[in-house]
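We modelled the chain as a single entity of 307 amino acids. Its sequence is:
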Amino acid sequence: MRPITGREELELFSRLPYALNGELPDDLATGRRRPEWMWVALRGDRLLARAAWWSRPGSGTPLVLDVLDLDDDTPRPASLDAGERLLRTAMAATLAPGSPPPEYSRLVPPDWRGDTPSRQAVENRLAVLERTGARPLVERLRLEWRPESPLPGTTGRLAFRPVVDAGELVSLMALVLDGTLDAHGRADLTRMSPREAATRHYEDELAQYTSPRDWWRIATLPDGEPVGFVLPAHNGYNAIIAYIAVLPAHRGNGHVDDLLAEGTRVLAERNVPRVRASTDLGNVPMAEAFRRAGYVAFGGEINMTWS
């Protein structure tokens, strides 16, 4: 059990199939991954398990564990044992002692529960995580809009303007946490105030995007009262709807459709090949809004955390 030596061992690391394999070479080249964050469990030349963390370019700290794979041809007890031993060894060598490990993210097919091989593969990996103390946080729906789809229409009820500054956006982000259906937001509120949660979200994620801030939009009523906001961005892989929210006082009026239409339009005008977004599986109103706007579900994501 060891980290890979470098780019020359990517072929070895990629022997186990997964959706992120195609991104690994560029991730290494841009510093999103480091060889010492990419671990393998070998028996001779057979790859039994692998694990890898991801972070933003230039960061010296892993941000998310997004690769954990097993050799599905190995009998289940031995496979789970190898995965657990690898993960415990890699975590001890890679992560700072005394702090919770970074969140785990697993991309899954949209119908993974109905497909026996997919379900077994996902459940095996989750079982390895649970052995190390991780617990499920949320399952998310991944959606995509493509240029061949018509642009979603607007009602004309709202006006849109750029975000004035980070302070304005953080204040609005704190307000929308009231009654949020987002599992990450609810989890944050168990540990910190809405303002603290919004500030951390802004600094740790939104401020890190290198796409222009003038893509971001505040939606207002004709008198200038803010109704919500939408933050189109590019995450280095795809154009995305990074954040969309309606303020509590204005929920239930269909404003999310106008916000999503505006965010999609901003990105479509940049001739992007696709716009991606995600929402919690349990956030049915938001999922329905994406579908009305022409977004199609193409997969899912399971998040697990350590307390």
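As a brief sanity check on the tokenised model: The longest helix spans residues 76-94. The chain has a mean pLDDT of 96.
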